Amino acid sequence: MLDSIAAHHLATVLRKKPGFLFHLFNGSGAEFSAKILRIEKRGVEVEVIEHLHTETVTKLRLHLLIALSKGERMDFALQKAVELGVNSITPIISERTVVRLSAERLERKMDHWRKIIIAACEQSGRSLIPALMPIQSVDQTITSPPSGLSILLDHRSEQSLSQLDRPLGDLNLIVGPEGGLSANERQGLIGAGFSGIHLGPRVLRTETAPLAALAAIQTLWGDF
Considering only Cβ atoms within 10 Å of each terminal Cβ, which end of the chain, N or C, has fewer? Predict the structure, then answer.
């Protein structure tokens, strides 16, 4: 049986009937051909026909750490980051983060973001779902910095992506909120091993900056 979201999309939104052939992925990288057998009130029963392929893990593993933003900006950034090939996403809270969530609202938001990520995988043909990591503060990132090449987007920086050495595995990209990271946060991240880089002479919006950076990273070192 399909989960309720996939079942609703097939049966109610797309109005597909028994016998309809489609592709199904398990979220761990495998994609299959499948057929609808029955549509019932309790769900949609399908038959898995054959394994088509398994998505290979790219040599460059992209990890996006992105500050919470207002309204649909966060949804947009997560959706496009998945399309651009990120392997994990970590929501970040900084000193200047405008969005503040209670524990209950955060739980609902995390569930909403997972659905955004899954839908983006379906749209872009990805069968390996990027991990949505627990929310953390910039201070936690500074205290326990990730391994690999770590990049801080900062329009004040004097170096660009092309001046960095080619990463061998993990690449971590941190993007601040609408008001940017504070001076103390920037200094702390640089002290923790992050390299500040700029994306040209323009100051980009919080939902534009990570996508421009990811596209540039994929072009320089990834699978573009």
Answer: C
Write out residues in the chain with pLDDT < 50, as ranges.
none
Rg for the chain (alpha carbons), in Å? Answer: 20
Q: Which residue has the tokens 């009130």?
A: 41
Number of alpha carbons in the 13 Å side-chain half-sphere of residue 213: 34
Angle at 120 between CA 114 and CA 126, to 5 degrees: 105
The pTM of the full predicted model, rounded to 2 decimals, is: 0.81
CATH architecture of 4-54: Beta Barrel (2.40)
Can you say whether the dihedral through the CA atoms of 1, 114, 133, 126 is positive or negative?
A: positive
Question: What is the residue extent of each domain of the chain?
Answer: 4-54, 61-221
For 30, residues 6+ apart whose C-beta sits below 8 A from its C-beta are 51, 53, 54, 55, 127
Residue 55 near residue 11, CB atoms below 8 Å: no
C-alpha–C-alpha distance, residues 19 and 35, integer Å: 6
Residue 67, judged by CB atoms within 10 A of its CB (0-12, 13-18, 19+), counts as buried
Q: In this structure, what token pair is assigned to residue 98? A: 């405008």
What are 51's strand-pairing partners?
32
What's the CATH fold of domain 61-221?
Answer: Alpha/beta knot (3.40.1280)
pLDDT per residue as tens digits for the range 38-63: 888 778 888 888 877 666 667 899 99
